[in-house]
Write a structure and sequence with these properties.
Blueprint (H helix, E strand, L loop, with lengths): L21 E6 L8 H9 L7 H5 L7 E8 L6 E8 L7 H5 L5 E3 L5 E3 L9 H5 L6 E2 L26 E2 L5 H14 L11 H5 L5 E5 L6 H6 L4 E2 L11 E4 L4 H9 L3
Amino acid sequence: MVAAAATLPTDDPHPETDGHRWGMVIDSDKCTGCQACVVACQSENNLALNEENRVIERRAKTWIRIERYWEGEWPNAKARFLPVLCQHCGNAPCETVCPVWATYHNPDGLNVQVYNRCIGTRFCANACPYSVRYFNFWEPEWPSPMDRQLNPDVTVRTKGIVEKCTFCIHRINRTKREADRDGRPVADGEVEPACVQACPTTALVFGDLNDSDSKVSELSNSKRAYSLLDALGTTPAITYLKKVDPSHVDEHEEHGH
C-alpha cells in the first residue's frame, strides 16, 4: 500500500500551488443561518436524504452544516451562525493517515477524495479536527420522483466509503475547460460552488487565492479574518470573517482594537 507523504507546516496560511489555489471566505456577519447552502449542496452533489431514522441514529449526512451558538443570557441572548465544511487544508491531517491514498492534495490546492480508491477505514474522518467527513452506512435511495433530480456530473457514492465537500470540483473543471477552449484565464467570480450560488446574503465568496486581485484574496486579508482551529497549523483554504457586533464597537475602539 502507498501512503500519502506528510507535508510540513508552513507560516503561509495559503501556500502557493502550481496553478490555482481555490479558497473561500465566509462572512459570519452576513450569515443568517437560513441553510440555503446546505440544501443547495445536497441537491447539487447527490447527497442521500436525511430521513428521521438517520437523524435519530446520529448518522445524518451533509457536506456543509450550520453551527449555531448562543451568546449572552436570556432575554438578551443572540444567535450566532457558522457554516462549517471541508476546510481543504494545505497541511491536511486526513491525507497523512489514509493507507490507500484515497485523499490527497491536487495541484489546484484542493483536498481531493477518490471514491473508487477508498476502502472505508475512516482514519481520515478520525484525523479531521473539523468533523466534516462522512461515512456511508447505507446504499443511498431516492424515492420517485426525487431520483430524477440527480446531478449527472457527480458520482453517486455507495455504501462503505467516506465522502465530503469537493468545492463542487465538477463546476471548477468545467469552467477551466471552457476557459481553455476560449484561450483565456478563468475570470474572478466565474466559478461558484452550489453553496456560494445559493447564499441569499452573499456570505460565502469563492475564488482563486493565488490571484492577488480576486475578491476572495482581498477578503482573506481583512482585519476580521481568522481560521478555524488556527493553532493546529492545518492552513485551511477557508477564511472566516468575525461577526460585527455594534454593541462592542465602542469597547474595541477604546482598547485600540
